[in-house]
Amino acid sequence: MNAFSERELRALGITVETGSAGIEVGSSPGHVCCENGAVVGYCFGDRDSGEIIVLALLPEYEGEGIGMALLPRVVEDFKAVGFNRLFLGCSADPGVRSHGFYRYLGWVPTGELDDLGDEILELRLDAS
Description:
Layout: H1 6-11, H2 16-25, E1 30-35, E2 38-45, E3 52-57, H3 66-80, E4 85-90, H4 97-104, E5 108-113, E6 119-124
Antiparallel strand pairs: 1-2, 2-3, 4-6, 5-6
């Protein structure tokens, strides 16, 4: 969606170590997609805030429907534990793939920007 290099992610404090720690202690629940034993995509959220913190795919797997499968699973997990609103940061640039992707799935702008200048989108979950 929005390509970041390992260096850019590290500058944001996102590393294999920080991601692994969140998964191990349960603070970052999510789902992983594997093919032939290798991770090709994943989606994780913050269990305390309801923020979807990452949805990432290897470039060669984009457009295969993996993101469309992973994100709703995480949404349902958060809904099952009582969240009625989730949020995420997304590029405000309509030329970036994630801009249309999240809106297509029902995420709407809040009118706010995060610390990185990304637009904050939210998804309201019904109570059913």
